[in-house]
Amino acid sequence: MPNRLAHETSPYLLQHADNPVDWWPWSADAFEEARRRGVPVLLSVGYSSCHWCHVMAHESFEDPATAALLNDHFVSVKVDREERPDVDAVYMEAVQAATGQGGWPMTVFLTPDAEPFYFGTYFPPEPRHGMPSFGQVLEGVRGAWTDRRDEVGEVAGRIVADLSGRSLSESLTATEQRPPRPEELHTALMALTREFDAVRGGFGGAPKFPPSMVLEFLLRHHARTGSEAALEMVQATCAAMARGGIYDQLGGGFARYAVDATWTVPHFEKMLYDNALLCRVYAHLWRATGSDLARRIAVETADFMVRELRTDEGGFASALDADSDDGSGKHVEGAYYVWTPEQLRAVLGEKDAEFAAQYFGVTEEGTFEENASVLQLPEIGGLVDAERVVSVKERLLAARAERPRPGRDDKIVASWNGLAIAALAETGAYFDRPDLIQAATDAADLLVRVHMDWQARLHRTSRDGAPGANSGVLEDYANVAEGFLTLASVSGEGVWVEFAGFFLDTVLVQFTAQDGALYDTASDAETLIRRPQDPTDSATPSGWTAAAGALLSYGALTGSGLHRDAGERALGIVTALGGRAPRFIGWGLAAAEAALDGPREVAVVGPRDDPATRALHRAALLGTAPGAVVALGAPGSDDSEEVPLLMERPLVDGRPAAYVCRNFTCERPTTDPEELAERLRG
Q1: Can you say how many angstroms the Cα of residue 11 is from the centroid of all Cα atoms in its chain?
Q2: Residues 538-584: pLDDT tens digits?
Q3: How many independent structural domains does the chain possess?
Q4: Contact (Cβ atoms closer than 8 angstroms) between residue 484 and residue 557
Q5: What is the Cα–Cα distance from 289 to 284, expressed in whole angstroms?
Q6: Of the residues 597, 622, 655, which one is the last residue of a structural domain?
Q7: Are strands 466-467 and 331-333 parallel, antiparallel or unpaired?
């Protein structure tokens, strides 16, 4: 019989609806049941495309004996971390503090008061590699709860007290309660230079994650200062990722990370947020350098998102699984993507298979499991027949389409759709792809229609056009505002600025402390053992720094000193952390670059169908000045009411014109696109 998860909308929770474990969703009722029975709570947190979550589910949660032990002695609660990032963040902080590491699946044992006392991640069904089996863990926790409950309560109380006593805002010095200065951003650059992998690109060793937010900072730093070192790190990293196995050489799009330091073998799940962030990075790299490789990857990644992740409602699904059926009924990681020489020959014939093996680095030994290879683009000598490459890729892609496809988590996450809207809008504008701008507009429309309520509060998720039950967190408001502001710059539709203002007003009222620090959850959100407050980037920009950037942009477009001041106060955390941990606050560093540069404000006025207006608008969008905002409108129209930056901006001698302002000072207007481009070159 299905358990309680059968009534949930999360694809991850539904994957566990037929487990013999008597799962509960996160709810007050679950903890009340634990209190009534006098048993501890097992909290299991994961997400639908998590490979090791699937492994533990198959090994333990589908096992009748393990399920019986759980059902008899625990209340088991399953959480989708993508639906409840607040729950995930609070208990992940406890896991990391206790063990020095974290990850998913996350396994935490709680008292009926939701206080954690024992932690872990994946546990195997049998003891291995120094890890106890999951059954041993359950028996150990059960014994401690039965025989030493007072001790368990004391441990849980100390953990909660320690977590509750941490306050970022209180720990900041007066110096750190202001935005970073140029010398502090230079210090961050130097720290990144020391950690840069000059041979293989990226930062650090294995596993290696795409450093999307750091790359945005480096591009902006190069634009502001002319630093060649910053640009070289971006170029080397983007080239290595684009040529590596982390990038899908046939269908486009990036996997979550590489398990090695060379970008060769990925962890194969594809996440919306990675692809949205990287699409934007490559588009911005093209904008800065004109790189053909950057252009190709930006467009292919945008096309991947629209082709593979777009839902019938117009939003973008969360992820594609790492695992798929290998053809024998067994789910195997990477089965959809890897190739052997024999498989190449079956599709291409002998000669083209030999060419493809050399071109994509497919060997008899393989680079992955079972002698299969992940497709890459290794350096090969001589000229390559471009038409032959296209033919080979088309035939391999068609053959791959016949394989069992990875599962798709089709819930819509507001925050990640905000990132996708920004990426698709800019990519569409740069490369004359109105279809991508329309896809961004459709996703924005879905967020307004389905995710926003009458008070302009956001739902975190939706599925099949129906909003989920969970409230939006800070990153939802911030990234949706960022997406809407970008869409407004591209489309000239001021209504998106208005909606962004609603969301950012909520940030000021519900998420901001008196000293300008930001919390991840609203003041009226469910009370957890700690109100989460994490300014550091993980897989996406932190809500804190994303809000800082969006507040600065909104203040520049509207002239709102309230929003600008809030954005600058929020950047104090970047002053505190930027020099010490720049890899983990890249988005904050990028926002700080915008603050140092102004950010510059560009108003393009003229009839929208006038080629001269369009030329000025394109020049404005292609400007590399960090965080520059762009408004487009016709004089005398309603546009200036929605976007105050357009107010009192007349044509110049009857011709479309562009006005550039910076730090409360405006330059003379120009009607020349080339002159405008020069003014916005950083």
Answers
A1: 19
A2: 899 999 999 999 999 999 999 999 999 999 999 999 999 999 999 99
A3: 4
A4: no
A5: 9
A6: 597
A7: unpaired
Which domain-ending residue is among 131, 166, 201?
Answer: 166
Q: SS in 3 state form for 601-646?
A: EEEEECCCCCHHHHHHHHHHHCCCCCCCEEEEECCCCCHHHHCHHH
Contact at 8 Å (CB) between 194 and 566? Answer: no
User: Residue 493: which of 655, 625, 619, 637 has the closest Cα?
Assistant: 637
Beta strands 41-46 and 106-110 are antiparallel
User: How far is 387 from 392, CA to CA, in rounded Å?
Assistant: 9
CATH code, domain with 120: 3.40.30.10
Token readout for 45 is 């947190």
Q: Domain limits at 489?
A: 270-316+408-597
| Residues near 229 by beta carbon (within 8 Å), at least 6 away in sequence | 189, 193
The neighbouring-strand residues paired with 257 are 267
CA-to-CA separations, 529 to 87, 96, 102, 159, 415, in angstroms, rounded: 9, 16, 19, 10, 24
What's the CA gap between 326 and 340, in Å, rounded?
13
Overall average pLDDT of the 334-363 stretch: 96
What is the helix (H) or strand (E) element at residue 533, kind and residue range?
none
Query: 232: burial class by Cβ within 10 Å (0-12, 13-18, 19+)?
Result: middle
367 and 421 fall within a common domain: no
Q: Which two tokens stand for residue 5?
A: 């998860």
Tokens of residue 400, six digits? 């791959």
Q: How far is CA 650 from the centre of its chain?
A: 40
Name residue 666's beta-bridge partners: 661
Q: Which pLDDT tens digit goes with each residue over 390-424?
A: 999 999 999 999 999 999 999 999 999 999 999 99
Q: Please give the DSSP secondary-structure letter assigned to residue 7.
A: G
- β-bridge mates for residue 320, sequence order: 270, 408
CATH number of the CATH domain containing 286: 1.50.10.10
Q: Tell me the chain's radius of gyration from C-alpha atoms.
A: 26
Q: How far is CA 472 from the centre of its chain?
A: 15
The predicted model gives 50-57 an average pLDDT of: 88
Contact 605, 616 (CB under 8 A): no
Buried b (16+ CB within 10 A) or exposed e, 437-472: bbbbbbbbebbbebbbeeeebbbbbbbeeebbebbb
Claim: this prediction has a pTM higher than 0.85: yes
Collapsing DSSP states into helix, strand and coil, what is residue 535?
Answer: coil
DSSP-derived letter for residue 258 is: E
CB 362 within 8 A of CB 340: yes
Q: CA 528 to CA 522: how far, in whole Å? A: 12
Residues 18 and 97 in one domain: yes
Report the chain's terminal Cα–Cα distance, integer Å. Answer: 62
Q: Report if residue 215 sits inside a domain.
A: no
Element (H, E) at 523: none
- Greatest CA span in the chain, whole angstroms? 87
Q: List all residues 6 or more positions away from 62 whose beta carbon is below 8 Å from its beta carbon.
A: 19, 20
Residue 465 backbone zone (phi > 0: left; psi -120 to 50: alpha; other: beta): left
